Amino acid sequence: MSWQAYTDNLLATGKIDKAAIYSRAGDSLWAASGALSLPPAEIGEIAQGFDNSAYLQSNGLHIQGQKFMMIRADARSIYGRHDAEGVVCVRTKQTILVAHYPAGVQAGEATKIVEQLADYLISVQY
């Protein structure tokens, strides 16, 4: 399956409206759906946030110029919220998944979908 198919499948769930897959270092975009593309500074903040969340905790998480309040940050997952919208970022062995969910979608529904994709990618050594 191509990387593009993974992001398209996230959107097909109806719970995610934008998704992207970046390299683990955050230096290259592998696939995007729903017009999600992050400037280098934003994906760089996310990539660094997995190892040290202090910057994200004090400055928030930025996705396409929008500031999200950080809800969770650890070595695997970063979750953010802005009003009724949210973002889920999950790091695997070789990728960073970034997914945005719109108002009306429960955070738990969106995070479950993205985390399951991450689990699959990890199981196949990605």
Automatic annotation (TrEMBL):
GO terms for molecular function: actin monomer binding. One of its GO terms (cellular component) is cytoskeleton. It is found in: Cytoplasm, Cytoskeleton. Keywords: Actin-binding, Cytoplasm, Cytoskeleton. Its main location: cytoplasm. CDD domains: PROF. InterPro entries: PFN, PFN_euk, PFN_sf, Profilin_CS. GO terms for biological process: mitotic actomyosin contractile ring assembly. Belongs to the profilin family. Binds to actin and affects the structure of the cytoskeleton. At high concentrations, profilin prevents the polymerization of actin, whereas it enhances it at low concentrations. Occurs in many kinds of cells as a complex with monomeric actin in a 1:1 ratio. This is Profilin. It comes from Lachancea fermentati (Zygosaccharomyces fermentati).
